[in-house]
Each structure stands twice: as structure tokens, then as C-alpha cells.
Amino acid sequence: FGKYGSNPKTKRSKRFLESRAPKLVEDGKSAMIMKGGNTSQLISNVLKDIVSKPIEFFSKKTDCSLFLFGSHSKKRPDNLILGRLFDFHVLDMIELGIEKFSSLSDIKASKCPEGTKPMLLFAGEAFDTDNEHKRLKSLLIDFFRGPNVSAVRLAGLEHVLHFTSLDGKIYMRSYRSLLKKSGCRTPRIELEEIGPSLDLVLRRTHLASDDLYKLAHRKPKALKAKKKKNISHDAFGTKFGRVHMQKQDLSKLRTRKMKGLRKRKGRAAVGEQDGPAPKEARVAS
């Protein structure tokens, strides 16, 4: 149980230690949202909108692996710091500046129902090539993915969070997907902006080393899928299996006997030795 000690004196302390102990399947991530001692009204509105979205943050307890800190100063106005922890130590921190903001109340549109799991979309080459943007993408996924679920109903896929990286800036947009009539069985999909909307600029980063980052993502052996022989999957997840069979002697293969395939008496010798019988012989028989 690490720094909490290994000899709890009460059942309550034992339960507390067990809740903090490592698990094969970790609990869903929760976040602390903090406002600095000196903040602007814009930062307060951003934090208020983020905490009001029901799909991101479900726990108010201190057992949080994510944090969001808002502050404002002359040197760094309208500042947001996103971060996460590993083993109670800071793993990554990324500082973002807010250049433009539209709140939920500014965009007049019907919102998604509570508990809707979002679809996260990332556009921009930097998310795949630049190391800082890669970490930012991973951090944003941790913040907005919501709880792990085994299945999602098709009608529930109506919330879209879109992040675009362009010229050193990050554009965050929130949409609601609408199913429209298309004249055929497949509906036409339109996106309606519901807010909040943020234009961000990447300022400073504090990233974990590659070794520590790899350690934080390591899976326990008990959760690793065992590799099965002769089974493979394609890019779409289709499962293929290879079956090995012993060599078969087709001459001994037993087939169904039919009357039309039986040889008639008097034709067997002609058919097997001299080929097809002449016309006269076929008529005579």
C-alpha cells in the first residue's frame, strides 16, 4: 500500500487503503478543476462551462488523476493548465492560452442529454507528427472520453467534440449530430454547434520522459490478451481462422449412390475400354 502503510488499524482505514491500491482494471478517471487566486471573468466562465458538461467529470472526491487550473496575469492572460498524475506525481502539464471563447449560453441550440458519450475527432498533421501535440491529444482524450462502457447505442452517438490544430493554435468545437431525411434508408447527417467554443494557443509544456510515459501506459500481464495460434484480424476487426487438416485420399471418399450413375449391363466393357458406344449399339441396347 506504499506510503499509506501496510498495517491498517480499523476496517475503515483498510477499505481506504484498498481503494487507493493498484487495480487490474482502474476506476474511471476524475478531474480536479481549480481556479487560481487571480483569475479573469473569461477564465471563470470557461471553468464553469467545462464543469457543467455532464460527460466529463463525475467524481468530486480528491482521488483524481486529472486536473485543470485556470489563472490570469499580465504576462500570461487567460491561462489554462491541463495535467495528469501517475502514482501521485505529475506526469504531464500543458499550458494553453485562451484567445476566443463562446459559452454554452451564447450559442442558442438544444444541448445533448445528460450522460451522452462524446465522439472525439482530431484534425491536423501536428497531432500525428509533433511530440507536444501528440501528448496534448492523449491528454484531451483522457479529459473528455468519459467512462469506459462495453457498448453504445447508435442513437446515442450524437455529441461530437472536434479539435483542430492549425498554425500553432488549437480550435475546440462542440457539435450535436442531427439525422435528416435523405430519401433512402441511410440518413443524412448534419452537425449543429452547441458550445462551448474555444480558440487556444499552445504556450508551455512539462512532459514526462519517454521511459516514465511508457511505464504509465504499461498494462498488467493479467489483462494482456493471450495470442491464439492460427487466428488473425484485419484492419476492420474481422476475425480469420486457419484450419489444418490431414491429407485426404479422395479415392476412398464415400459419396451418395444414385440410380442415374449406375452402369448398365452390356455397356460397362465398351464404355470403359473403347470409349462411347456407337449409335447403333446405343439404340440396340
From TrEMBL:
Region (Disordered): 254-285
PROSITE patterns: BRIX
Limits of the Brix domain: 1-211
Listed GO MF terms: rRNA binding
Localization (cell): Nucleus, Nucleolus
Compositionally biased region (Basic residues): 254-267
Biological process terms in GO annotation: maturation of LSU-rRNA from tricistronic rRNA transcript (SSU-rRNA, 5.8S rRNA, LSU-rRNA); ribosomal large subunit assembly
InterPro entries attached to this UniProt entry: Brix, Rpf2
Organism domain of life: Eukaryota
Pfam families xrefs: Brix
GO cellular component: nucleolus
Sequence similarity: Belongs to the RPF2 family.
UniProt name for this protein: Ribosome production factor 2 homolog
Native species: Takifugu rubripes (Japanese pufferfish)
